[in-house]
Amino acid sequence: MNPTAGQVIGGKYELERLLGRGSMGEVWLARHTSLEGACAVKLVDLSRVPDAGARFRLEAFIAARLSKKTRHIVTVTDHGEAGTSAYLDMELLEGEALEDRIARDAPLSFADVATILAQTARALTFAHDEAIIHRDLKPANIFLTTDEDGRLVVKILDFGIARTRSPHAGRSPVETAKDTLVGTPSYMSPEQARGLDTLDGRADVWALAVVAYEALTKALPFEGESVQDVLISIGIGRYEPIETRRPDLPPALVAFFAKAFADDIEQRFSSAKELARAFAEAAGVAGSPRAMVPSMADAPATRAHAASMTSAPSLPPPPSQTPEEAAAPAPRGGRRGVWVSGALALLLGAAVFVVARPRPASHSPVASATGSDAASAATASATATATATATATATATATATASASAAGSAAVLEGVRPRPRASASATVTATAATTATVDSASPAPTPSSSSPQPARSVDRSDVF
């Protein structure tokens, strides 16, 4: 198989540019010749992988079925065979694999890890409800992209070695032989490493915990000089405690990983959702908006701008009030009090006017004029008093309203900018017969007391 730019695959996919290459296949940027839409075409040489066509049919069926229920699984729209190649047509994603993000930015923040775990767990839940086990969950198969609002969207890739026990028509025609290991050793659960036929969704839950460990430490919990060493470490439960690599972690997170990697499968997390929820709680980000939406690089500037737009200047308090009184919420019925005060003032003014009104005949013009002036003065005084009272009350009400407005500033939602980058996935397949021999003949290695060594990866071959 030697595909080239300009070659048309399956009579409808024109290859434009190579995106990634593995030891058994390639992924190309392609364009549909009639619909003219960009897509990603995965090609595998049938002469090297005889059952590639059958596995592509299974992958296409699973992805098409699950992507209708959740956006967290990559969409596959077509598959087929062309000459000596099997091909798979997938949606073209912009972003990067979690593997690349970890290599560049790890350790990731608690909130970012919680977001990735939550969305990945959502996709796994739909798969497990359909009796589908991914069996190769790892950072290379977790893709980070964004939606139209710039918010992070996690998508699971590559169901090529998935296993399904569902009796529906799309059941895999490719059955994994007993005692055969399929997957990436460093992310295998003890049950998967032993090649057990009773494997269930908890194998993916274990792998998700390994992903979380790696995102926080940039290292793997189970390591070794060879694939066999890694599998032995997984089988005997010998992993590097996370607190030796991250002494700053809270005790709750240390307990989280102890539970996730427990020897007894019944003592571990029973579902991906349970694991994701437990991590968020242990990390102290449960229920936080950031736990659902990753932060933007310029979030502080965004918050300052929002505050300046939503805060209102407070009015100065009247002389008879302290600042604390002015900032207090306005009492219920405050506006009614202004009207009542005004009405009482008018009645008082009318009463004074009646008492001071000049009497007929018996009073001199001088007396009448003096009484009239007094009545006018009293009326003006009462009116002024009522006006002052109303003004003070209204000022206090306005001040309280302004304070309440200033206190009610809206929170700023955070997003993430896309970082376009290409990535290829990796998968390793091995048989369990050799592992069983090593397991029974070799004594269990004793844990080393030396300081932690840099992470070694013995299973990152580029195999599709």
Number of strand segments: 13
Helix share bin: 40-55%
CATH class membership of the largest domain: Mainly Alpha
Low-confidence stretches: 169-173, 291-348, 350-464
CATH homologous superfamily (4th level) name of the largest domain: Transferase(Phosphotransferase) domain 1
Count of separate structural domains: 3
Radius of gyration: 36 Å
- Output the CATH topology of the largest domain: Transferase(Phosphotransferase), domain 1
The count of helical stretches stands at 15
Could you say which structural class the secondary elements and strand pairing correspond to? alpha+beta
**Any idea what the shape is?**
globular
Following the backbone from N to C, one meets helices and strands in this order, namely: EEEEHEEEHHEEEEEHHHHHHHHHHHEH
Question: What's the CATH architecture of the largest domain?
Answer: Orthogonal Bundle
Strand order of the largest sheet: 1-2-3-4-6-5
Largest sheet: 6 strands, antiparallel
Let me know the average pLDDT: 72
Describe the structure.
It is built from 15 helices and 13 strands. The protein is α+β, with helices and mostly antiparallel strands and 464 residues long. The protein has 3 domains: 8-90, Phosphorylase Kinase, domain 1; 96-302 and 426-441, Transferase(Phosphotransferase), domain 1 (Orthogonal Bundle), CATH 1.10.510.10; 315-402. The strands form 4 sheets. The protein has a 6-stranded antiparallel β-sheet with strand order 1-2-3-4-6-5, with helices on one face. A 3-stranded antiparallel β-sheet has the order 7-9-10. A two-stranded antiparallel sheet has the order 8-11. The chain starts with 7 loop residues before the first strand and ends in a 23-residue tail after the last helix.
